Please model this.
Amino acid sequence: MARPRLDFLGRLRSVLGPDAAGARQGLVSLAVNSSTSLVAGAFLGAIVGTLESFPGLLVLVPAAIGMRGNIFGAFGNRVSTSIHAGTFNLSARRDTVLGQNVLAAAVLTLGVSLLGAVAAKAIAVGLGVPGTIGLLDLALVSILGGTLASLVVLAATVSLTAGAVRYGWDLDNVCAPVVSTLGDVLTLPALFLATFVLGIAVLTTSIAVVLVVAATAVLVWGLRSHLTELRRIVRESLPVLVAAAALSALAGVTLERSFDDLAAYPALFVLQPAFVSSAGALGGILSARLSSKLLLGLIEGTPVPGREARTDIGFVFVLAVPVCVFNGVGAHLIGLALDQRSPGLPAMVGASLVAGTIAMVFVAAVSYYGTIAAFRTGLDPDTYGIPVVSSSVDFTGALTLVVVVSSFGII
Model:
């Protein structure tokens, strides 16, 4: 009678691979990611009044949240590959790998916050979101809020790097979920705090102009810096990060247009950030693992994933199942605790699992082929993998969840 169970465990171990510690690290970081993303969802429901007062701000929210994961997740990927290759030195000097990545993160935070606001405004107006706030106001909220959140995420990323060097953690397994977690839980409050500067006559305009000029100047400096690695990171990252912000803004438009339907069951607002964040974090883990193995020559960029790549894909699918269940249960319970109506536990878990399965197929394809494409064209897959995955998941994840809950007859 024990043989079927032993066979199952054997198959499970073959999917997870020999790195059982990696599976534990991934699950722990994903659990933290989901927990804090559910908190972010609860906060999203709490600031509905602010979102109504400043039309167009909801369009910016997914882009602003995703930006933290995109910038600092890629930061972790690059450092992780350097650690695996044995070329990393834990030093904050400007000319070191760590020092130039820190500077690049600062440059990209300011520059992409500005460009992301421009993209969000253009998409909101282009797709007919009525009464959107002015571009300067949107830029002020994006730059100020983004900077506040990024300071904490930067400190955490550097701390994880130090822990990876000292304790042997694998950044490929822990950085993307942790960064995504912090991006979720910090960005919404930071944006909310930034809105308090709006509407103060001349002061608001003056602060906005100063921030726009400063962000532009810092971005130009980064693009022309004499530090080779810094300049390369900024130049390679900027196009994909701006494209990612535009895709994430489309997710905001999807939520804006489904707002009244979702409001019938406010617990769905709790689920949405956790669902999208988890899919992005799982994609970040997969991209990071594939990128490191490509750069180290452990896998080849074949049209059909080889055995090693399939093992990594199976690895994240196994991790996705308990994460989706956790998200559904957590959103339902938090909704009840906050007196927010829920369609019921079975419906929440079922929607999370079905939408999660669909999203993970998309995540696996984008992670694998996006990483391969970057590698084959001579670009750094560490820089491109996470932004491509997370921004794609922002839009497709939001759309998938809305379609699934609609198909279930929930809305």
User: Anything to note?
Assistant: The radius of gyration is 21 Å. Residues 8-12 have pLDDT under 50 and may be disordered. The chain is about 80% helix and 0% strand.
